[in-house]
Design a protein that fits this description.
With 659 residues, the protein is α+β, with helices and mostly antiparallel strands. 72% of the residues lie in helices and 7% in strands.
Length: 659
């Protein structure tokens, strides 16, 4: 088109300028796109070509929207709508109203945005444009979901799906992510087909993995978004940058977090993108707090409070108050801390009540839809059964005469078949019962063998020998108090293991007690070369939950011996206990040298220690799931921002069991 443009004149030249603007906008080259649109608007004005001028304003509105100048986008859309309306260009008018809704929505003016979307849908309906209707309903669903109106959002999603809109699957995924149903959200995102949605899916899928605390997967998708940008501007990278900064903040990689968040914030300030400015300020303030720069953290939090108060962003007002409370409390300013805590508590309670009500409305809507679908399925099944019954009746009448003639013969055959069938069924049932009994006995035998093996391997000779050497060392050093303490704890651990090994399951509290006793002995024996922490989720009742005995210790032992002991500086072991989707999830993570390096060191040493209980324990965990196909043990290699190994994470999944 660039080659033919010089030869064109009049309206054809203006149409070519508008087409070039649209192509460069699609490629993300907004400066070139704006240049062609402005030239089209100027030449249309000179030639009084109204349609060309309206198209130019529409392109300018889209460019302003993509570069976050939402007020400018709204103004350009109004100009395009006015001209398209006068010229009777209904299809272009519908597109302009839909874009206007996006521009107004981005300014958090949801009711006005909804009015614009309704106008667009009315026009698309008149035109019979099902794709336009589906896309507009998708935008309405996303807008309602953003302001927390989940029930209305779900209603628009269903309408968009009825027009086969692929974007509706994205809206449904976002809706389930907003209410905390992350697995369903990922299923919806995975079902989206087409390159038009690939880029935004990278960001949405990355955010879901971030919310699931699967940071490596989150970083992968954000980097995929960055890698596939065509000639990216700095602003085009601002959203993935602030999202990456939030991930690195959660991973405690504060230098990387600061780099990405500060880079993104400067770009958001340049285009006055208020929503992302507030999001960036919150992440920046939290990062400064974690690195101890309380003054900078307070400045970011105060700016966030001022900005969010100005635009009525209640969730950011709440978050700013909470951060300011933490900072005031850290410097001992009890008066300010009390004021911020009071404001935060009041606002947080109000928001929690609203969010809970919205989630309840959403779940009621989804439940009603499922019940409606079930009723339809039952009705269809009933109709099918009635038809089958009618067909069978007609067939019976058709062959009635023939049936009577062959009744005697058929009767004899049927009786013989029934007798043989009953005899076969009896034999098969007995055979199945015998096989089931054999399988039960075999499973019981395997479980007993595993329990005895784990008893022998958990209290392995290495640990007992080294523990006794440590006691001897304390005695030789005349450190009788420490030797006595160590011997007392060692005796208690041995007694607990011997007692628990007799039971198929024990309370989770007792399992954690023996684990902490084991870790304290190892830490004492190695002169506190590593530290450890056991964290229990609020939803976990350790007194009633049941687990097989000695289920966590082999993995903790492996982390200490292979991950932390080979680390020159001190290391840390973290054990997190939580429940998730009817599973008890136990996460053992260390910041040691990683599995690959540990394997190399083990190959170079004749005395390398290996916990022989890992394979047995993995089998024991798998057996708790019965015939369910569940990945019960997951091992992740942790890497730092530079790509080097920085530890290992083991995730154990056991079915929730109570007394």
């Amino acid at each position: 088109m660039n080659n033919v443009l010089p030869a064109l004149r009049g309206n054809a030249r203006i149409d070519c300028l508008c087409d070039l603007s649209e192509v460069y906008r699609y490629l993300g080259t907004f400066d070139s796109s704006a240049s062609f649109a402005l030239r089209a608007a100027k030449e249309s004005e000179m030639l009084q070509y109204e349609f060309g001028k309206a198209e130019a304003y529409y392109n300018l509105g889209y460019i302003d929207y993509e570069t976050s100048d939402f007020a400018g986008s709204e103004a350009s859309c109004h100009l395009a709508i006015e001209i398209f309306g006068k010229n009777g260009s209904e299809r272009q008018l519908a597109r302009a109203y839909s874009l206007l809704g996006l521009a107004i929505w981005a300014q958090s003016k949801f009711d006005r945005a909804n009015e614009a979307f309704e106008q667009a849908n009315a026009l698309f309906t008149q035109l019979g444009d099902s794709a336009g209707i589906g896309e507009t309903y998708t935008r309405m669903a996303l807008a309602e979901g953003e302001r927390g109106n989940y029930e209305k959002s779900f209603e628009y999603c269903l309408k968009a799906l009825s027009f086969k809109s692929m974007g509706a699957l994205i809206a449904l995924g976002q809706l389930h992510a907003d209410v905390g149903d992350y697995e369903t959200a990922l299923k919806y995102y995975d079902s989206v087909k087409g390159d038009n949605y690939r880029m935004q899916l990278y960001l949405r899928v990355g955010e879901v993995y971030f919310l699931k605390n699967q940071y490596d997967s989150s970083i992968h998708f954000y980097r995929m978004y960055i890698a596939e940008q065509i000639n990216p501007s700095r602003y085009a990278l601002s959203k993935p940058h602030v999202l990456l900064g939030s991930v690195y903040l959660s991973m405690k990689s504060y230098d990387s977090a600061l780099y990405y968040i500060q880079s993104a914030l400067s770009e958001f300030r340049a285009v006055n993108n208020r929503n992302w400015i507030m999001r960036s300020l919150l992440a920046l303030g939290r990062t400064y707090k974690e690195i101890g720069n309380l003054k900078a953290a307070a400045a970011s939090a105060q700016e966030l409070l001022t900005t969010s108060t100005e635009y009525g962003a209640r969730q950011y007002i709440r978050d700013a108050r909470h951060l300011l409370f933490q900072l005031a409390d850290a410097v001992g300013d009890k008066t300010k801390a009390y004021i911020h805590l009071k404001e935060y508590t009041s606002l947080n309670n109000a928001i929690d009540i609203e969010v809970s009500a919205r989630k309840l409305a959403f779940f009621n809507a989804t439940n009603e839809r499922e019940q409606s679908q079930l009723k339809i399925a039952l009705l269809a099944n009933e109709q099918q059964l009635q038809q089958q019954e009618l067909d069978r009746s007609m067939q019976q009448n058709r062959f009635l005469f023939a049936s009577i003639l062959g009744l005697a013969l058929v009767g004899i055959v049927l009786v013989m078949n029934i007798l043989l069938k009953k005899r076969n069924e009896t034999n098969l049932r007995k055979l199945a019962e015998n096989e089931l009994q054999i399988q039960k006995l075999e499973s019981s035998r395997q479980l007993s063998e595993l329990e005895m093996q784990v008893l022998r391997t958990q209290m392995n000779p290495h640990f007992i020998f080294n523990s006794l050497n440590s006691i001897n060392r304390f005695i030789l050093q005349n450190n009788k108090a420490q030797a006595t303490e160590y011997l007392t704890q060692f005796s208690r651990l041995v007694r607990m293991i011997l007692q628990d090994s007799k039971n198929k399951s024990i309370p989770l509290q007792r399992e954690l007690d023996s684990l902490e006793l084991y870790l304290s002995l190892e830490a004492l024996r190695f002169d506190n070369h590593f530290s450890y922490k056991i964290t229990i989720g609020d939803d976990v009742d350790v007194s009633v939950l049941k687990v097989p005995p000695l289920i966590v210790q082999p993995y903790a032992e492996n982390a200490v011996w292979h991950g932390l002991m080979n680390k020159k500086e001190g290391g840390h072991l973290r054990i997190d206990v939580a429940t998730e989707n009817q599973f008890l999830v136990i996460k053992i993570s260390d910041d040691g040298i990683g599995r690959k390096r540990a394997a190399n060191l083990a190959g170079q040493s004749d005395t390398g220690h290996k916990s022989m209980g890992l394979d047995i324990t993995s089998q024991r965990i798998a057996m708790t799931h019965g015939e369910m196909q569940v990945q019960s043990v997951i091992i992740n290699d942790l890497v730092g921002p530079d790509g080097d190994p920085c530890g290992t994470e083991v995730i154990l999944k056991l079915p929730v069991a109570y007394d």
